[in-house]
Structure formats: C-alpha cells, structure tokens
Amino acid sequence: MNFSSVQRILGILLMVFSITMLPPVAVALWYDDGAAPPFAVAFLITLLAGALLWAPVRTQRRELRLRDGFMVVVMFWTVLGLTGALPFTLATNPHMSLTDAVFESVSGLTTTGATVIVGLDQLPRSILYYRQQLQWLGGMGIIVLAVAVLPILGIGGMQLYRAETPGPMKDSKLTPRITETAKALWYLYLGLTVACSLAFWGAGMTPFDAICHAFSTIAIGGYSTHDASMGYFNNTLIEMITVLFLLISGANFALHFTAWQNRKPFIYFADSEFRFYLLIQLGVALFVMLALYFTGTYHDWWEAVTLGLFQAVSIGTTAGFTTADYSIWPGFVAITLLFTSFVGGCAGSTGGGIKAIRFLLLVKQGVREINRLIHPSAQIPIRVGGKSVQPRVVEAVWGFFALYVASFTFMYIGLAITGLDLMTSFSAVAASINNLGPGMAGVALNYADINNPAKWVLCFAMLLGRLEIFTLLVLLTPAYWRR
Asked: What's the rounded Cα separation, in Å, for the pair 143 and 172?
C-alpha cells in the first residue's frame, strides 16, 4: 500500500473541499442570516487539516496502484462525509449532535436525501444552500467515479456498458485522460444544472429556490429547502419540469456525452439500458396512476395522474422528492414504489439502486436459464445491444447482486436489533442503500426520531450503495491488506 501517495491525494482533496465552505459564507452575508461564522471556521479547519496531511508528503509522485485506488475512493467519500459535517456541528440553528451532523452530511454527499432536520422553512438560508450544494457536489463526484474511476478498478457498472456505448473512458490505468473525461462531464452537469435552474425560475420559483432545487434535481438527491418538499410549491409545471430533469439525470452521462459529441439524439433509443430504464420508469408510473384512481385514493383523474407520475419517477430514480406522503397510499402501491428504487437509474448516472443494466442482465440470464431447461445442449449467449456479454461480466453481476442482498439483510437485522420496528428497519435500509431518502413507517417524513446506532448503520448503508458494494467491502477483506 502506497500510503504516502494516498495521504497526499487526501490532503489535496481536503484543501480543495474547504473552498466549498466559502459560497455558504457569501449566502449568509447576502441574506444577513448570522450563520457565516460556522462556515468560516469549518473552512479554516478543513484547509488546515488538508495542509497538514499534504505538506509532509508533497514531493511524493509515485503512480497509484490498483489497491491504492480503492483506498482513495473510500477515503474520498468517508473523509468528506466527516468534514462536511463540521458546519452542522458548529451551527446554532439547527443545533445538531455529531451523529446527526455526520448523517446529514453523508446523506447529502451520497445524494441519498434522508434528513434528520425538522423545520427547514425556519433555517438560515446559508444552511439550506449548503445542504443542496453537498448533494450537487456529491452528484458530480458520483458521475466521475462511475464513468472514469471505478471502471479502472474493474468493478464499476460502466464495465457492463462498454459493450455497446463508446464513452469517454480509459480502460487501463490512471492517466490524464481522466482529467479530460471529468472536464467533459462537468460541462454536461453544469449545463443541465443551469437549464434546470432557469426552468424552475421561469415556472415560478424564487431564484434561491430554483438554484437549490436544480442542485438536488440534477444530482437526484432529494433535499429541499422546505419541509413539504416539492409539494410546497403546489405547481404542476414545476413538478413536470422536475420529472423531465430527473429522467435525464437518471440516464447514463456517458450516453449523454456520446449523443452530444455526435449530435445524434436518437442514439438514446438505440441503447438497451436506456430503453429498459425508460420502460421501468414509465411502466411503474402508469401502474401507480391507474391504481390511485381506481382504488379511490384520488377521485380526480388529473390529480391521480400528476401525483402518481411525480412520485413514481421521483422514487424510481431514487431522488426522493415528494408532493404527497406515498407511504399512506394503498400498501401495494407504496411497496411497488419502494421496490422500484432497487432498480434505480442507469450506470454512470447520479441515480442510486442496483442500476438498470445489472437488472437487465439478471433478467436476460433468467430467461437463458429457462431456455436451457428446454434445450440443455444449446449454447445461448446473453446479448446487450446486439453484442454478446462475456461470462465474466455476468458472474460479476451475480456476485454484486449476492453481496447486495447479503449486505441488505445484515443491516436490516442490525436496525431491528436497535429496537426499530420491522417495516421502519426494512424501508430505512432500502432507502439508504438505494440512496433514495424517504422510507415508510417511522422514516416516511424524516429520520430525526430513530436512535443513534441505527443512524450510523444507515450511514454505512449510504456509502455502501453509493460506492457500488465492492469498493467498500474489498477494504474489509484480509486479502486486500496482504502484501
């Protein structure tokens, strides 16, 4: 393990991250909300910590090895989650414990959107802005991680995608190409954020709300500046704009890059994963709309359509925005929405979940096994986008799925041991590992009332889901630490 190089990168990372504490200072001064000091102090602490880590090893220039990459990725999210909690712990409004501050920070950076804060409408503007900014930065980090970094380590969902989409990725090792990739993705991400902000503003949001909600929409995060989430605005146009940008952000950003670079918008519909993703999202939305109307939950057809569509896409893409409390809808509707979040977005998107491409391959593998029962001697390849998928890829998907289920089960039992009821435990773990946010029962509205041990378990679940299982669990194996 090249600890000095990892330490150097971590130090640089912290110094760069400290700069993100300055925009909330500007917001605090602009609105004169009195919350500037916590961010200023957090900036100095983070900058100093980064400098102290970087200075002793600043001359180290050795190339990172594969196992160093795993450590950098895990430390990236873990350390930023902890340092991102500093403003929350230093602030007086809201006054938060260390556990709650870390939970809110990790939830923001992993774009989960689960919150322990009650009374958002009364918070200082700078605190509200900072929460949204955490999600926006985390969303961009996810894109770079999924498209540029994890494939290099050999465990990302983008590995599955290369068979049919030539994204801006580099296969072999960490090279300056990653910088070029990240720059292209930043342009796309920033462009979508600006477009979403302008659309929200034009639809009736204030400039502050428009920027904040654009941050969390493009990041598929789900944080809002209001306790009532998107329902606060009671504006159908805003809801439909949100649906559109959530569907865009849940698609593969490498696919966006390819379509933009080649000026071929129809390339989306030539992609198997995108078609499967869109089919799931719209199919579930149609089911929910019909169910809400014919069960009499809403007697007005338009209300059933708008509320059903919004909640289906928001939960399905793992954003977690709400305009209604879906947990009190008919049980089969609520559980359908929760299970849809397990599919989530596409590989290389800001969405959470297992990812559409993995589910597509699991379905194709299941169909193949049924056909093999009928034709035992037949050689039946699994094809995605007209190309055969390597057996190694299919094995990796099954391995990922097995670890996902096993991790979910252990954390579900762990939460139940802390004293939470079974439905709260199940939905809290599902909402955290899928980076969804709102759950059911005791976590339908927020996570403020659950116990501290449960919050730490859920922090681990958020990181586990965001780092796509393997990246975090590999550090817990004895083989990783052997020379």
From this structure: 19
Q: How far apart are CA 318 and CA 221, in angstroms?
A: 8
User: What's the one-letter identity of residue 195?
Assistant: A
What pairs with residue 103 in β-bridges?
none
Per-residue pLDDT reduced to its tens digit, 264-306: 888 898 889 999 999 999 999 999 999 999 999 999 999 999 9
248 φ/ψ sector (left φ>0, alpha ψ -120 to 50, else beta): alpha
* Whole-number Å distance between alpha carbons of 133 and 27: 12
Residue 383 β-bridge partners: 388
- Residue 427 CA: distances (Å) to CA of 104, 203, 412: 18, 33, 9
Please choose, from the candidates 267, 257, 259, 252, the residue with its C-alpha nearest in 3D space to the C-alpha of residue 385. Answer: 267
Place of tokens 């939950």: 297
Helix (H, G, I), strand (E, B) or coil at 351: coil
SS3 123: coil
Tell me the sheet residues that pair with 426.
none
**Any bridge partners for residue 387, and if so which?**
384
- Distance between CA atoms of residues 469 and 406, nearest Å: 11
**pLDDT tens profile 323-370:** 998 888 999 999 999 999 999 999 889 999 999 999 999 999 999 999
Residues in the chain predicted with pLDDT less than 50, given as ranges, are: 155-176
Torsion-angle region of 379 (φ positive above 0: left; ψ -120 to 50: alpha; else: beta): beta
| Bridge-based pairing state of the strands 383-384 and 387-388 | antiparallel
In angstroms, the CA 48 to CA 298 distance is 56
The answer to whether 209 and 128 are in contact (CB under 8 A) is no
Alpha helix locations (H) across 222-300? 236-249, 253-262, 272-294
Q: How much is the pLDDT for 166?
A: 30
Q: What is the DSSP letter of 435?
A: T
Q: Is 333 exposed, middle or buried (0-12, 13-18, 19+ CB in 10 A)?
A: buried
- Nearest residue to 160 (alpha-carbon basis) of 404, 389, 465, 470: 389
Alpha carbons 268 and 284: distance in angstroms, whole number: 20
b/e map 270-299, b = 16+ CB within 10 Å: ebbbbebbbebbeebbebbbebbbeeebbe
